[in-house]
Amino acid sequence: MRATSGKRGLRDRIIPLFLLSAAVSVVNILFLPIIFYVPFQAVFELSNEQMGSLLAAYASLAVPGYVVGGWLCDKFSSKTLVTTSVLSTSLLGFWMSTIPSYNTLLFIFFLMSITLGLFLWSAQIKCLRMLGDNTEQGRIFGYSMAIDGIISAGFCLGLAYLIGENIDTVAGFRTVILGFSGFFFLVGLGLFFFYDNKKYGTSSSDDSERITFKSLWNAAKMPVTWIIAMISFGVYVESTALSYMSPYLNAAYGMPVVWTTAFAAIVRYGIKILAAPIGGLIRDKIGRTAPLVYSTVTPALLIIIILSFIPRDHKYLILVISLIFLAIFISRLSYTAANMPLAELKAPLALAGTITGLALMFGYCSDLFLPKLIGHFLDMYGVSGYNYVFGIMVIGMMIMLTGVFWLNYESKKLIAREKSEHVQQEDLQANTNAI
């Protein structure tokens, strides 16, 4: 039975919300070369382009696999898929802790395209979607991002503090990898033993709603699929480029390595602990996604443009850090936008996984080329290569705004159609009563 929504809040759903949020945090293992960019590069002795190639190896199967993953979570138990993802990704993390060769590392990241791309994303989003109705989606996804942020930032900052200057040594960084892998293995066990699969409706659909491959065609015909894809693509392009701010501060402003790790953790996870739930509450209060995105992404975009013109001198380090934090906080207020169209446009719940999977295939396809392209720019142009990174961030934000504009248009069409149908029903009822 699906969890009922209402005015009592989410207290009765806090356990599944916590477990699902902790589960998605397992992607920290995939994002180790992003969060710990400088020490990861030093320990594994990689060029910037090779660093980007790791995510490209993941994306090679993960991007087309999102569609299959969406279909799988509509066909089978979402709990089983999420649990399998967390446990298997943790095992790959243990393998990575042996500090293997570059080719072996590429293979590990390729295997994560199965454990994460196929099993995790669509299933986890569908599980969260089923915890409440449209009036609660902002809070559900906002709180989920906050929980994810607390777990991820806590681990990143805690490990960086404990290991200190040894973080860019083999022994120090092996401790980082083992810490993440061990914790998420326990999370996977927690999901297996303590998550109530039936209570929250995360089992496969009823027989009347069995998904076939025809579902892909039905999902492809829906505007909601391409709206999610466009918003996700914009968010992910901007987020990928933003992750390079950590090595940027090291290369352009002389920030110490251990500080870059703390900075990356705060940027990627710490800020959204507050921003995501606040943005979710604002979105639910407004009842629509577009006004929130317009009023947050636009000023953040302007700040990013300003950042690109600040001189690269160590005396501007504090100013640059402050502006980056401000831009990220403002933009993170609306980072739940990509998850809102499913409920806002009232997409069929039976197709939720298929729609999400198809949308994510296009939304996350930048992993196939963008990290490697940015790495190429940095290897070729050095610090000047970051000019391209700022330009990519701006492009991502513009794409996101375009997707939200389309969402706003479709949302108004839906509201008008529902009002028209309501008036017709009232007229029909009035005529029936008159007869």
UniProtKB/TrEMBL annotation:
Which PROSITE patterns does the entry link to? MFS
User: What is the membrane topology here?
Assistant: Multi-pass membrane protein
Q: Where is the Major facilitator superfamily (MFS) profile domain?
A: 14-412
UniProt keywords (A-Z) are:
Membrane, Transmembrane, Transmembrane helix, Transport
Q: Where in the cell is it found?
A: Cell membrane
Query: Which InterPro entries does the protein's record reference?
Result: MFS (IPR011701), MFS_dom (IPR020846), MFS_trans_sf (IPR036259), MFS_Transporter (IPR051788)
Which SUPFAM superfamilies does the entry link to?
MFS general substrate transporter
Write out the transmembrane intervals.
17-40, 52-73, 80-99, 105-128, 140-163, 175-195, 216-236, 248-271, 292-310, 316-335, 347-365, 385-409
Q: Which Pfam families match?
A: MFS_1
- The lineage's top-level taxon is Bacteria
Q: What is its main location?
A: membrane
**CDD domains linked:** MFS
* Family that this chain belongs to: Belongs to the major facilitator superfamily.
Under which name does UniProt file this protein? Inner membrane protein YihN
Encoding gene per record = yihN
